[in-house]
Amino acid sequence: xxxxxxxxxxxxxxxxxxxxxxxxxxxxxxxxxxxxxxxxxxxxxxxxxxxxxxxxxxxxxxxxxxxxxxxxxxxxxxxxxxxxxxxxxxxxxxxxxxxxxxxxxxxxxxxxxxxxxxxxxxxxxxxxxxxxxxxxxxxxxxxxxxxxxxxxxxxxxxxxxxxxxxxxxxxxxxxxxxxxxxxxxxxxxxxxxxxxxxxxxxxxxxxxxxxxxxxxxxxxxxxxxxxxxxxxxxxxxxxxxxxxxxxxxxxxxxxxxx
Length: 258
Description:
Layout: E1 25-27, H1 32-39, E2 49-51, E3 100-102, H2 108-114, E4 122-124, E5 149-152, E6 158-161, H3 180-257
Antiparallel strand pairs: 1-2, 3-4, 5-6
């Protein structure tokens, strides 16, 4: 999609308001570098937008435009300090719109090509191919941002930029510069593997315990069956003993009578 059709949003991190919110958006214009310093941002250009809520009334001309030296001082950290803006120039996305990833040293060459530092800050997921994201929604170690880059020419017009990733044919091994978030992902994966290994170990132990319990159940069942059989034999022997005692008493009575 052409950059001219992007939804315009305020660049202030805690704001991200658009014209849909009933505010007026102003281009930073020739004062963009000073405005960037005031906001602590380095991706501010002439065509970056900032809304009127961040300026004192004295910053506006009679016609409602920004004075050439106007600087934002109001509501710069209000209400939503955790809102993140994509640091790619002219990208209006916030973390409320799409997933965000931290910049990496490996992005330095691409950032230089489009004139912005991509080794730090935040980059939204729209600048990455889908296969650069793993099943857990994390950016893969070899991921590079190649989509949705726009530059501004001398006339202020916006043009899409095609980023070419050049790989060496001499060595098939990718030389990766591991940033903190990549290392954190690797550590998380190692922990996951450890948990899985521990779970597998526990699962095997549980299986062995269940097999032992089943064997004990069978043994107990055999003993119970044997006990029932022996009890029947005892009952039969007791019955025979009672009959024998009865016969013996009857025989004794006959002897006495004779």
